[in-house]
Amino acid sequence: MKAAMFALVLICLGSVWPSAGSQPLDSSIIHSSPNDIQKLSRRYAESTIASDISKIVDSMVQKNFVNFLLNQREKKSEPALTEDPESHIFNDLLKKEFVMWIQSKGDTFKNQ
Q1: Closest listed residue to residue 57, CA positions, set 105, 99, 96, 1
Q2: Number of folded domains in the chain?
Q3: Residue 49 lies in a domain
Q4: Which residues contact 12 (CB under 8 A, 6 or more apart)?
Q5: Phi, psi of 3, deg, nearest 5
Q6: Looking at the domain assignment, is residue 40 inside a domain?
Q7: 96 occurs within a structural domain
Q8: What is the 3-state secondary structure (H, E, C) of the chain?
Q9: What span, in angstroms and rounded, lies between the C-alpha atoms of 40 and 25?
Q10: Which structural domain range is residue 38 located in?
Q11: Would you say the pTM of this structure is higher than 0.85?
Q12: Backbone angles phi, psi at 101, to 5 degrees
């Protein structure tokens, strides 16, 4: 999809690019022949097409970026499916030590 869009942009720019520098714009357009006016209108149409393609590509890039951000957010919010069993043992030991510490502080308080 991206390669096809890139090829389309290159084809359109290839048809626009050589004619873009062929005639400079100046005040002599008013007194120009119909052939010159036709060339100018063709250049305008080609630049309009290039502008439209640029807008389409920009919107595709923006959508891809938003999708990337949403995917990153989903990855961060998913819980880990495989947890280390040793972490449960470590947490249990910490809880037991904390409870014992609190009980010892309570015993010290009662003895005073």
Answers
A1: 1
A2: 1
A3: yes
A4: 46, 49, 50, 53
A5: -65, -40
A6: yes
A7: no
A8: CHHHHHHHHHHHHHHHHHHHCCCCCCHHHCCCCHHHHHHHHHHHHHHHHHHHHHHHHHHHHHHHHHHHHHHHHHHHHCCCCCCCHHHHHHHHHHHHHHHHHHHHHHHHHHHC
A9: 9
A10: 2-19+32-78
A11: no
A12: -65, -45
Distance CA 87, CA 90 (A): 5
> For residue 100, what pLDDT band results from cuts at 50, 70 and 90?
confident
pLDDT digits (tens, 9 = 90+) for 41-90: 788 888 888 899 999 999 999 999 999 999 988 887 766 556 666 777 77
Give Cα 88 distance to the centre of its chain: 39
Residue 66 lies in a domain: yes
Cα 11 to Cα 103: distance, rounded to the nearest angstrom:
79
With tokens 């942009």, the residue in question is 9
* Distance from C-alpha of 77 to C-alpha of 49, rounded to nearest angstrom: 42
